[in-house]
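@channel sequence for tomorrow's demo:
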Amino acid sequence: MLPALLQMQHDSTRMENVYFWSAVLIAITPIVVFGGVGVWLLRKYWKERHTRERGVGSGG
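structure tokens (generated this afternoon):
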């Protein structure tokens, strides 16, 4: 394996681009997923809180 790697001495801009964008994708995916779940839970919490406050205020 090492001799094969040593023979690859040329620079491959295309492969560097592939590695860069795959690293960006790997880094951004968890941010988008957990951020989306966080926004969903926050909106759900605000909606429940708003309906609870309206229910208590109108009963009174």
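heads up for whoever presents: Helices lie at 2-7, 13-58.
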